[in-house]
Amino acid sequence: MMADELDLVVERTLDAPRDLVWKAWTSPEHISKWWAPRPYQTPEVEIELVPGGIFRTRMTGPDGFDSTGTGCILAVDEGRRIVWTSALGPGWRPNDGFEADCGGFPFTAIVTFEDAPGDKTLYRALAMHRNGADRETHAKMGFSEGWGTCADQLGEVAKSLGAGR
Description:
Layout: E1 7-14, H1 18-26, H2 28-34, E2 41-47, E3 54-60, E4 66-77, E5 81-85, E6 107-116, E7 120-129, H3 132-140, H4 143-161
Antiparallel strand pairs: 1-7, 2-3, 3-4, 4-5, 5-6, 6-7
Helix pairs in contact: 1-2, 1-4, 2-4
């Protein structure tokens, strides 16, 4: 899977085994701890890990920010890959909610998890856009910093799940 000029990518080697990173990414109680860059929070998460399933998050911030994003799970390869999009809602219904959220553009995310040496995980999040303008808007919104911070927070949460293992 190669990124092209319409994509944005964040990649990290996380200091936790793949099964724990997967658990942190797929459990609402754990997603709420890392999904939004701190001090922003994610008080609501709903995820149904089946094709056509809902993926909904609500993020809030100390500056009054309050945004809900609803998408659709497209594919799940247990422990290895999650594909979801903001262009569709649950049950494959076209989603018009992205106009108010996510900067007004749809995107598809492909998130992969691979074993890395030292019981670590190679984590990659690819955001695919329909055109260059959407990609540029997402980049200017702080994609690299925001998604990068969240990836680091995901690694912290996953590592904490292994404490006392």
